[in-house]
From TrEMBL:
InterPro entries the UniProt entry points to: GBBH-like_N (IPR010376), GBBH-like_N_sf (IPR038492), Mrp-like_CS (IPR000808), Mrp/NBP35_ATP-bd (IPR019591), NUBPL-like (IPR044304), P-loop_NTPase (IPR027417), YlxH/NBP35 (IPR033756)
Summary of the function given for this chain in its UniProt record: Binds and transfers iron-sulfur (Fe-S) clusters to target apoproteins. Can hydrolyze ATP.
Molecular-function annotations in GO: 4 iron, 4 sulfur cluster binding; ATP binding; ATP hydrolysis activity; ATP-dependent FeS chaperone activity; metal ion binding
Start and end residues of each Gamma-butyrobetaine hydroxylase-like N-terminal domain: 309-392
Source species, domain of life: Bacteria
Designated name of the protein: Iron-sulfur cluster carrier protein
Binding, ATP: G28, K29, G30, G31, V32, G33, K34, S35
Family to which this protein belongs: Belongs to the Mrp/NBP35 ATP-binding proteins family.
UniProt keyword ATP-binding, yes or no: yes
The entry's keywords: ATP-binding, Hydrolase, Iron, Iron-sulfur, Metal-binding, Nucleotide-binding
Subunit architecture: Homodimer.
Length: 402
C-alpha cells in the first residue's frame, strides 16, 4: 500500500475550512456497532452546541438513514450553487448512499466510482459552516479508508471494537493502517462492553472486560470509553430515534456523551497544524494557523506546527521538535516528486532545472491529508506534492523565529 498519490486534484485543495474538524469512525470488522456509535456521537456533539455533519461512507451497506428516520430512495434537492442539500435529522446534517437508492437496490460500484461518490459526499454537499464532520467508514482497511485518508485532511480516527479478543486483534490492524497513512488515532471505543438489564439498569459483563483499554495502553493510544450493550440501542435504531435522544438517562447514552466530551478534549490537544487550509501565497491570505502546542525538544521531527512566508521567496516551517526550517521556493519547485517531475518507474528526475525560472513563486499551498502539502507555482505547475518527511529532508538555513 502506498500513502503518497502521484497527483493532487485542485478541487480538494481549498474551500474545505467550512467543514471544521473531520473525524473518521472506523473498525477492523463489521458488527461492532460503528454506525451506532457514529450516529450517537454526532448527536452528542450537537447537544453541546456544535454544528455537526455526518457522512455515511459505507456505500455498499448504508445504515445511518434508518437509524435517524431519514426516508430513502428520494433524489435530494440542490442548492442554488448546485450542491446537494443534506438531510437534517435531530439537529445534524446527513448524507448517505441510502438516501439515493431504495432499500432493496444495491450500490454496485467499482473502485473509481467509490472514490467519486466519497468526494461528492464531502465536497459537493451544501454543509454550511460545520464544527465537526463525522465520517462513518465501512469496516476494514480498503479503498474507502485509503481514499479518504489520502484525499482529505482528517483530524483523526476513532477506532471501534468489542471486548472479544478476535475483535481487538482486528482493531489493531485498523489502527496500524491509519498510522501508515499518517492519520492520528484519537482513541479506541469499546462497544458492547457489558449488558444493561432493562429492568434494573445494572450492567453485567457478559463478554471480556477491559480489553479495549488494555489494547489502547499496549499501542500507546487513548482509550475514549466503553459503551454497555443495551437492548434499547437496537430498538432505537430500528425506530429511527437514536438512544441519546430517546433514552438520554440510560448508562449507554451517558457513555456516548462522555466519549464525545473526551473526544473534544483530544481534538483540541491534537498536535500539528490545524487542517484543512488553502494558503494564497501572493497576498498571504489564509495563512495556516499554528498548532495549539508549540514545538519543543523531544517532539516529532516530521510533524509541522507552524508555517509562514518569511518573505516572497522563503517558506518557513517549524517542526514539533522545535527545529525551524527555511526553504527557498525555487528549491521547493525543483524538489517536486510528482509524476510530471520524476519518472515513476526509475524514480529519476525528469524536470530540467534550467527550465524553472529563477523568480518562480508559489501561487497556492494547501494541506493534503495529514502527511503532506500540495503546491502550485507561477510557471503553471499544479501538482506539486511534498510529504512532511520530504520537506524535512530538504536543505535549509536556520531562522530565528516563526
Amino acid at each position: 500500500m502506498t500513502s503518497t498519490p502521484a497527483t493532487s486534484r485542485a478541487p480538494e485543495d481549498t474551500g474545505m475550512a467550512h467543514l471544521g474538524q473531520i473525524i473518521a469512525v472506523a473498525s477492523g470488522k463489521g458488527g461492532v456497532g460503528k454506525s451506532t456509535l457514529s450516529t450517537n456521537l454526532a448527536l452528542a456533539l450537537a447537544a453541546q452546541g456544535a454544528a455537526v455533519g455526518l457522512v455515511d461512507a459505507d456505500l455498499y451497506g448504508p445504515s445511518v438513514p434508518g437509524m435517524l428516520g431519514i426516508k430513502t430512495g428520494k433524489n435530494p434537492s440542490m442548492s442554488p450553487s448546485g450542491k446537494v442539500m443534506p438531510a437534517q435529522a435531530h439537529g445534524i446534517k446527513v448524507i448517505s448512499m441510502g438516501m439515493l437508492t431504495d432499500d432493496d437496490k444495491p450500490a454496485v460500484l467499482r473502485g473509481p466510482m467509490v472514490s467519486k461518490y466519497l468526494r461528492m459526499f464531502i465536497l459537493e454537499v451544501d454543509w454550511g459552516k460545520l464544527d465537526y464532520l463525522i465520517l462513518d467508514l465501512p469496516p476494514g482497511t480498503g479503498d474507502t479508508q485509503l481514499t479518504l485518508a489520502q484525499s482529505f485532511p482528517l483530524t483523526g480516527a476513532v477506532i471501534v471494537s468489542t471486548p472479544q479478543d478476535v475483535s481487538l486483534k482486528i482493531a489493531r490492524r485498523g489502527i496500524r493502517m491509519m498510522e501508515q497513512v499518517k492519520v492520528p488515532i484519537l482513541g479506541i471505543v469499546e462497544n458492547m462492553s457489558g449488558f444493561t438489564c432493562p429492568s434494573c439498569g445494572e450492567v453485567t459483563h457478559i463478554f471480556h472486560q477491559g480489553g479495549g483499554e488494555k489494547i489502547a495502553a499496549s499501542l500507546g493510544v487513548p482509550f475514549l470509553g466503553a459503551v454497555p450493550l443495551d437492548p434499547a440501542i437496537v430498538d432505537c435504531g430500528d425506530d429511527g430515534l437514536p438512544l441519546v435522544i430517546a433514552h438520554p438517562d440510560t448508562p449507554a447514552a451517558q457513555a456516548y456523551r462522555d466519549i464525545a466530551a473526551t473526544l473534544l478534549r483530544r481534538v483540541r490537544a491534537k498536535p500539528g497544524l490545524p487542517t484543512p487550509f488553502g494558503w494564497q501565497w501572493a497576498d498571504d491570505a489564509s495563512t495556516p494557523m499554528p498548532a495549539p502546542v508549540a514545538g519543543h525538544a523531544g517532539g516529532a521531527a516530521e510533524v509541522p506546527v507552524a508555517m509562514h512566508r518569511r518573505d516572497g521567496r522563503t517558506l518557513v516551517v517549524r517542526w514539533q521538535d522545535g527545529h525551524d526550517q527555511a526553504i527557498d521556493v525555487r528549491d521547493l519547485r525543483l524538489a517536486c516528486r510528482c509524476a510530471a517531475c520524476v519518472d515513476e518507474m526509475s524514480r529519476r528526475a525528469v524536470l530540467v532545472p534550467a527550465s524553472v525560472p529563477l523568480n518562480i513563486t508559489p501561487t497556492r499551498i494547501w494541506s493534503i491529508g495529514n502527511y503532506a502539502i500540495g503546491a502550485s507555482f507561477s510557471d503553471g505547475h499544479q501538482s506539486g506534492i511534498y510529504t512532511f518527511g520530504h520537506l524535512r529532508s530538504m536543505k535549509s538555513a536556520e531562522v530565528e523565529d516563526v
